[in-house]
Each structure stands twice: as C-alpha cells, then as structure tokens.
Amino acid sequence: MDGVGAALGLVGVVQLALSASTKPRADTRYWDNLPDAVHVAALTLPAGKHDLVLSYCDASGQQVSESNVSVSIPDAGVKRIVWARSRTQLSTAK
Fold first, then answer.
1. 39: pLDDT confidence band, cut at 50, 70 and 90?
2. S-S: 92 plus which of 32, 36, 53, 80, CB 3.0-4.6 Å?
3. Do the domain assignments include residue 6?
C-alpha cells in the first residue's frame, strides 16, 4: 500500500510540473462572416413549388437586402428547413 501511495504522489508531482510549464492563451480564432442574428419563421405551405422573397431590414426598418428562395414541398404536411443569407458567404463586416 505504501508503494501505491508513493506512485500516486509521484504522478501528482509530475502533473504539477507539467501544468506549471504550460502557457495558456486565449483562442483568438473567429469567423468574420457568421450571422449576427438568426431569424425563424414557421410557414404552412401546400404541396408544390414556392418562390419566396425574403427581405432583410436594419434597426430602423429600412430594407437593406433581399433574397429569393425556391422551396419544393413534395407532400402536404412535410416539414422543411430553408436556409437563406442576407449577405454572400464571402462578404465581411468592416
């Protein structure tokens, strides 16, 4: 039992030495084209193809962009998720 205690003590000392030698730093990676907000709308649409026009507005209510999305609903009652962007994937806020 003394050997087990000594081994655990040695492991503890090694862990302390390793943790003291590490240099923590902040993860500064980021994605500059992630959306600042995500909006969700639940729609009930009949079966068929639908062309949706999505308007994006600023804080004052002025339209800043628009996108057209085509949605195909094969059967009534089928749930769909539609993803649209107000900007292209490559645009960045500067």
1. confident
2. 32
3. no
